[in-house]
Amino acid sequence: MASQATNIAVVGGTDADHAKIDIILKKYEGQKGSLIPILQDTQDLYNYLPRKALEYIAEQTGNPISAIYGVVTFYSQFHLNPRGRNIVRVCQGTACHVRGGKTILETMEKALGVKAGHTTDDARFTLETIACLGACGMAPVMQINGETHGRLTPEIIPEILAKYK
Amino acid sequence: MEMVNLTINGVKVQAPKNATILEAAKSAGIHIPTLCYHPDLKPEGACRLCVVEATGARGLVASCCYPVAEGMVVQTNTAQVRKARRLVVELLLASHPKGCLSCRKSGDCELQRIAADLDVRNHRFDWGERKTYTLDDSNPCLVRDQEKCILCGRCIRMCRDVQGMNVYSFARRGFHAMVAAAFEQDLSKVACSFCGQCSAVCPTAAIMEKDDTERVWDAIHDPDKIVVCQVAPSVRVALGEEVGLAPGSIVTGKMVAGLKAMGFDKVFDTNFSADLTIMEEGHEFVDRLQHGGVLPMVTSCSPGWVNMCELKYPDLLPHLSTAKSPQGMFGAVIKTYWAEKANVNPAKIVSVSVMPCIAKKAECVRPQLRDSGFQDVDIVITTRELGKMLREDGIDFTRLPDAEFDSPLGYGSGAGAIFGTTGGVMEAALRTVADVVTGQDIQQVDYKAVRGFEETKEATLNIAGKEIRIAVCNTLGSAMKMMDRVRAGTANYHFIEVMACPGGCIGGGGQPIPTSKAIKKKRMEAIYSIDSNSKIRKSHENPEIKILYDTWMGKPLGEKAHRLLHTHYSPQNR
Fold first, then answer.
1. Cβ of A49 under 8 Å from any chain B Cβ?
2. How far apart are the first and last CA of chain B?
3. Which residue among B166, B172, B181 sits closest to A73, beta carbon to beta carbon?
4. Among the residues of chain A, which ranges form H helices?
5. In angstroms, what separates the C-alpha of A69 from chain B's closest C-alpha?
6. Average pLDDT over chain A, rounded to an integer
7. Residue B111, in any domain of the structure
8. From the CA of B294, how many Å to the nearest CA of chain A?
């Protein structure tokens, strides 16, 4: 565990990390208002935004680290903690709500053993909620890694999860 | 300037075309309540307390940001405005702790005052959820109590726009929105200079100086301790505000009397050690100039600035004068020279300093400042804390008979006095440097080019046939620009003065609240009047300074002076 924690602390801060981030920074060089795309591309590299990577971006772009932290915590698309290999988004929008979206979320929480917003210990799943996926006709729905699963019932959940390793 | 005509509450008002409604109203003597607005900061329109009705606008507008226009009709007190304003306060109070009675800001709190002014008695939304945060008192200077934060953003704007330090930012969103340092770390973990300007503009108790008054009372009430204090140059021109006097009141004599009435055994004058600083720093400058030392030399008496340099410009530390700050010098001298003279065991001395400054609280615990064999200065309190102690002690300040500082260490020249304002250290140094370099008693002692509020001032002087290029910076933002130039090799100066706070120590983070440029201007005028009314206006002519060197210290930059009056700096990594 200790070594894993140390690893997390240096992620984004090694020379190899800097080389990867440099490519992203180069892509947006000289463009005003490019902080968000830089953060998005960086998150694509790691699945989340490692602190060291943010500190490096601050140093290289001249954006204060406090302001970058402000941006990252403002937008729900950004994540400061490592995320699972599979991202589950359970819809809690109005249509899903009236068709049992809450029960689906509770079933998922039980099945994965984590609350919404958290990642399983084995890093297999991150469970999130979302306000509306625009697939109300299939309510209640959830998305796993961008694939939409509709007309959900608690019974079919284990079968769906089994497909994602 | 192009002017426009408008009507506010039926009163015809003329205002510059680029003025805001708030500014126009103020000029006409019409009061509009504000919270996130601060006269020294860019308006942001965050709190919506200053809303008014204005023709040509849809709905209510925030008068702090909304520009005036020709023919505009503004109403600041309609039923709709009142209702909206009160709702703003009610919603702020909904998630605000109600412990006003025991809050440190009670009496000085803008939220409290506005709630009273607007007669908000009925807490309709009290059932709402409260945010809970851990108190950040991780550093010697500032305490952050975020439960009292109303998200006005003044601290962010001060730290970002004026000081350039960018310690704070808004983070998170909606109900969870907060003012945070990066990764929500404590201030002790981030690159904060501890200048305390955030605390000077915070309308509530969300950011305050660390309260060290109880430690002072404990020392005063301990019969085994000899409790001495030194008072910084800019405290005497600001303390009056703490007891209800007009800004710019000079209260030196009453301040000394008040400190003695509180129970201090000796009351000394930091103006004395400001003169001492000039002796060392002036000679250091001449030495660097004549012997190829590192130039430009930069002053080191402002601890917020020293922290910033150690944090952000560690490569430029050799530019800092090695002379300690006046507080630091005084600390070392009290527990050595004075202890010896007064035949007092230095172990029994509790050395307190009264400062306009928040960062001095961190300076006094620097490991470098223990040259007396003890911690040289034990406790630092700010002007605000002294005001509080005077009130607590029930001292009727304005009726106190004037008293004199104790001697020795109680006399300061006019040069020492002006340490309290931007440009003052430079001017004081030049008065001594000019005499040292020329070997004459130069009569012209006013260096007007370095005076005033501009963030960066520069001048070229001719001293004994040599051209001396100087610059003076106040605010950390302007210091950063200057140090970037020093780093790039384009700052073609011999000597630079930096003070971290806007206006210098008169605008220090620990000075009375409210503070604004207009108030600071009064304090500055008072400082210069102390100087111009002084019989002795050069540090090296201060008789107590002469005695100190002749009978004890030896020569400026000498062995003893080097040991007690000079220091070193180390990079800080936070």
1. no
2. 47
3. B172
4. 2-10, 15-27, 35-46, 51-61, 65-74, 94-98, 101-112, 157-161
5. 6
6. 92
7. no
8. 28
Residue that terminates a domain, selected from B91, B122, B153: B91
What's the CA gap between B536 and B556, in Å, rounded? Answer: 20
Nearest CA in chain A to B171: A70
Q: In chain A, what residues touch B168 (CB-CB under 8 Å)? A: 66
| B462 and B417 both lie in a single domain | yes
B335 and B454 share one domain: yes
Inter-chain residue contact B169 with A51, CB threshold 8 Å:
no
- CATH number given to A86-161: 3.40.30.10
pLDDT in tens, B37-86: 999 999 999 999 999 999 989 999 999 999 999 999 999 999 999 999 99
Asked if the Cβ–Cβ distance from B166 to A70 is below 8 Å, we say no
Q: Does B278 lie in the same domain as B139?
A: no
Q: Is the pLDDT of residue A1 over 50?
A: no
Instruction: Name the domain count of chain B.
Output: 3
Backbone region of residue B409 per phi and psi (left: phi > 0; alpha: psi in -120 to 50; beta: other values): left
**ipTM score:** 0.93
| Parent domain of B40 | 3-91
Q: In this complex, do A69 and B190 lie within 8 Å of one another by their Cβ atoms? A: no
Instruction: Please report residues of A whose CB lies closer than 8 A to that of B166.
Output: 64-67
Cβ burial, residue B375 (10 Å; 0-12/13-18/19+): middle
CATH number for position B10: 3.10.20.740
Six token digits for residue B367: 């490991």
A73 contacts B171? CB cut-off 8 A: yes
* B434-469 residue pLDDT tens: 999 999 999 999 999 999 999 999 999 998 889 999
Same domain, B261 and B183: no
Query: What gap in Å lies between CA B7 and CA B100, rounded to an integer?
Result: 38
Tens-digit pLDDT profile for residues B155-212: 999 999 999 999 999 999 999 999 999 999 999 999 999 999 999 999 999 999 999 9
Compute the residue count for chain A: 165
Any idea where the domains of chain A sit in the sequence?
Answer: 2-74, 86-161
- Look at residue B259 and tell me if it is in a domain: yes
B180 and B40 in a single domain? The answer is no
What is the predicted pLDDT for the residue at B353?
Answer: 98
Nearest Cα to Cα of residue B196 among B223, B232, B163, B245: B163
Helix locations, B55-138, DSSP H: 79-94, 110-117
